TrEMBL record:
Organism of derivation: Kaistia nematophila
Domain of life: Bacteria
MF term (GO), any: transmembrane transporter activity
Domain Major facilitator superfamily (MFS) profile: 9-397
Entry coiled-coil feature ranges: none
Membrane topology category: Multi-pass membrane protein
Name recorded for this polypeptide: MFS transporter
Amino acid sequence: MALPANRQARFFVALAISVALLNSTAASPLYTSYRMMWSLGAFTVAFIFAIYAFGTLIALLVLGRLSDRLPDRRLLIILSLGVVIAGALIFGFAGNLPTLMIGRLLAGAGTGGLTGIANAALIELDPKADARANAVLATAVFTGGCALGPMISSAALYFDAWPLHLPFVLIAALAGIAILGLATASWQPAPRITDPREATAADDVPAGRYTAFAVAAGALIIAWAVGSTFAGLGVTFVHELLEVHSQAASGVIVAAFQLVAGISQLASQRLDSNRAMVLGTTLIALAILACALAIWITSPLLFVLGTVGSGIGYGAAFVGAAGVVNRIAPPDRRATWVSTFYITGYLANALPVLALGFLGDQLGLFGAFLCLTVFIVVGTFVVNGAAKLILAAPRPAR
């Protein structure tokens, strides 16, 4: 039976995830401000975004395995929140490009420390240990935080309310609340499985864990490559290619992607994980084609529709891929597997947007977007074909 104290602990774990992701996306509407203030090129803006992902990768690689060995995951969650606070305040009060990058690196490290660990904690604090439901909860909280970040910054820009500073002060305050809540909440996780025979029994994918993981990772790469494009360069695309000159309005378009993605994840809970993953990647490919056409004909409305479609596809693909990984992960190594899943995602977060920034300086922003479109369409064919071959066999009912 669920204890109220456990529900309190789960709430603060969810808040921790949300705050970390607020910190990850709050900067998105502000990149154009820094670009104009400091005369930055597209690649430099992309690098500011991507250095966050590298900070995340470092933390995931270092802390993912350590978490499974600690008796209380709160230690690393609280430590990671402290890093989130430091990153937010350094970024929010940065006076030059190197300081800005340090803030983003720390923001990424804080998020990386939280991602796999907090996901595993949500499952262990759930007496039902429902991997699918907890995957939906974690990804919904994840994307909810992503959506609120640019909305807060866009509102600060619109009202001229200390826009380069206020969002990050708010993030630091929320992270402090999460730390206090976690430190005082009762923490009674379910016992972890340590018998390797029991962990092996958790594999219910006929083609094996690793091939199934590869398919899920491929879907995640497609989803996060598009997500990082909107988060890192979306405002730049809207501002310079679609002639929407309001930074606040451009930021709202980015926030709309994240918000629709979150709603899509909740709706996708009713779908089988495999089906959600395939439908999501297919919709992403169609929507990114619509966005490319919108840029070609300079149609902000069509771009918004393509953005919404991309967000729906992102949400379905993400929750489907996360559901596959949570289903196949050995219980005694869950944080390690989930961390590896997110390592793949953050590589997809960093490398494509860096490539886009480089191509944007060399070929122009539209040429760079066309390259992204080709990558997404081809990748979707490959991933969906592999999913039909590897994940098509029926699984025994639980």
